[in-house]
Sequence to fold (933 residues):
Amino acid sequence: MQLPYPYPLSEIKKLIPVKIITGKSDNITGINEIHKVVEGDLSFVDHPKYYDKCLTSAASVVLINSETVDNPQGKTLLISDDPFRDYNVLVRHFRPFIPIQHNISPTAKIGENTIIQTGVVIGEKVQIGNNCIIHPNVSIYNHTQIGDNVIIHANTVIGADAFYFKRRPEGYDKMLSCGRVIIEDDVEIGALCTIDKGVSGDTIIGQGTKLDNQVHIGHGCVIGKNCLFAAQVGVAGKAHIKDNVILWGQVGVSKSLTIGENAVVLAQSGVPKSLEGNRTYFGSPVGDARSKMKEIAALKQLPDLLKRSRK
Amino acid sequence: MQLPYPYPLSEIKKLIPVKIITGKSDNITGINEIHKVVEGDLSFVDHPKYYDKCLTSAASVVLINSETVDNPQGKTLLISDDPFRDYNVLVRHFRPFIPIQHNISPTAKIGENTIIQTGVVIGEKVQIGNNCIIHPNVSIYNHTQIGDNVIIHANTVIGADAFYFKRRPEGYDKMLSCGRVIIEDDVEIGALCTIDKGVSGDTIIGQGTKLDNQVHIGHGCVIGKNCLFAAQVGVAGKAHIKDNVILWGQVGVSKSLTIGENAVVLAQSGVPKSLEGNRTYFGSPVGDARSKMKEIAALKQLPDLLKRSRK
Amino acid sequence: MQLPYPYPLSEIKKLIPVKIITGKSDNITGINEIHKVVEGDLSFVDHPKYYDKCLTSAASVVLINSETVDNPQGKTLLISDDPFRDYNVLVRHFRPFIPIQHNISPTAKIGENTIIQTGVVIGEKVQIGNNCIIHPNVSIYNHTQIGDNVIIHANTVIGADAFYFKRRPEGYDKMLSCGRVIIEDDVEIGALCTIDKGVSGDTIIGQGTKLDNQVHIGHGCVIGKNCLFAAQVGVAGKAHIKDNVILWGQVGVSKSLTIGENAVVLAQSGVPKSLEGNRTYFGSPVGDARSKMKEIAALKQLPDLLKRSRK
Fold:
């Protein structure tokens, strides 16, 4: 998330018990986890495996649990015994949870000719454009941004928290989300869909994209323009799906991968890693659809082949 | 959809910019897309590939983008440069979107001993029979018809729009839905299910059928009597599933196919084309369950077979 | 379910038309179906195949459709021509359906610092602990128990009826549910999840467990502590999933099985029978993940092997 103004590290130090190793910046303009970090941001790292990635990222300030690290870019370091915990303190400070007191928050902005049906709940600082229809019992969490000509069907949930936990000896510790959901113009979202907010960046549904019912889009996904996702598709966190991609029913997409433009993934397929565009895929895990069909045809002959091979 | 009375084509001409080629009828009694068309209907076709199908269908009046077609039954033709667009204009005229102003529309009819729990939203002209229970936060769109002794669990959505789009160079163009959902007597529908309305005909859930939670039924499906669908089953548009069919958990069924009576489809299977009744199926794509089990057993021996074949 | 006090069989006889064969008990302290029965309970059996199981169970009183059975423990028998029907009569008597009249029932107990967002519906005798957040439009059925520090995201449904039907010649007959859902401390449940109540016992979500969006947990499941279930996982009735189990996205788990501690089941897998703990699984049906990966790699070579074998 971006902060409304540059925030001095002297103020940060009052929020979390860190030692400051001065470096390239003495303020921050945003906080972000490592996948979404931009210049001016504070980010955090708590495992030596990722020190290097974080210290060569775009972050200006790094919250870290080691003082003796290779810091080629001279980033400002905030030394903490528990960067994950302290990062969560900052998220809670800059984006506190605000309960929803009304069906439609008085801080929400709703455009012209937009119809909000009965039972819809709209959180703090939500923005909805013109000519939208939000069907009954939809729940929209704080800070969601929705463009023009958007239709959202009944009981869909926009902006629930990222499913992101750190395993501690005593159980799972939740990473608090401060990202948003951004839904561009001309999007239609079916009934009973879930689109989670980003952990620190934004989940984006591109212009003209259409989602059928019961689709799940995880935290921080970026979905391109004019995509078509059939019912019960699930996309895990931070996947990047480019323009004009078609996912048929019950397809599952793993996290942090890319699907290229114009790719088509046939029903019930599972996508464990990135896919090139302009091709058709099938299977769990997916492969080229035509190859998979050949494998399926071949498999039918396997019991006989085994019988013959035994003779 | 059926119109309340025969509607003269001279009036249709005021709604959409068409040239009328007179033929067997000078009025229409309904509008329907090609899969659901009955005598008296206006239907539309915009691709030469389907001209023949439409011109030999039961339609009395055809909205079409060519004047020079083979018209053996002498149907009345309405010549349009964009039949899809003009059909949508008619849908919007005959079934305008009416926002839901109350939790329960004053035009809804609700039977005796029917319990409507808190947070339920019931649209225009919905009919619900006797002795039903509609659990909290269910959303029922306009024109839905529900029989007697029906139970619908919480947060389910009945009658959302069909997921049906035409690809245009500039993006997807939505086909407006004017069909309904009809739920017959003694049906039970789980929590968080979606049953979409038909594009122009009806989606029907047959008497005595039971759906578990998170089941999706696409637009225009006809589900028989005493079917049992386990949790997270998804059925695409216009599938016809006959009586006493059992679909186990997470089964996916493709569009516009038929599953015969008493068929059983085991969990997580995918049904890409029609299935005969009275058999048990498994796999994605499905086959006879016993054959599939043999293939799975054979596949376990394949790595060894390959090793041996290399020697 | 447990009754608040020992209930004399002379009173039971006024509710259902049974003949009493006196035995070890002349009252009952609970009613339970056979999988959940404990001492003092009345249970029922209506098929000779299960007579023995029921008559050697912990039940003190057995509702049964045969007088001439081997009854080694001298249980009290209630002879009925239709034990299923009569059991349902008792469930309806002891746990009558009470409609929800308010958003939050006056009989619900809600702890300190717990936030109930707009549109949430909370049924009769629900208990919610301290420091919980219940997000908008969640529906919580009667008798649910929720611990401390629990987060439930929007439009989730807790405590809907078990999907449990008896096939009769005239259609499906519903087994009424009198169990509860119990959610322990520190659990987080995503948006649009369904957790069904037990048929007669409790569905339990163990302390510290986290469910992503659109997860379905069937009736009477017992989920351990610190489990992690990704989006769109479905677990059928009475599954027992032990501590620290991880189920990735769209996994399906069949009914009445056990998954051992620390097991990991990869995305889209289907679990048809019990799994040992401390291992990683994949496939539908699942096997050891590494073996399955070898099978998938081998299958890619099968079309070529078949070609060669034909020569």
User: Anything to note?
Assistant: Chain C touches chain B through 50 residues (CB under 8 Å). The helical segments of chain C are 9-15, 48-55, 83-94, 289-310. The first helix of chain C runs from residue 9 to 15. Chain C has two domains: 2-94, 109-290.
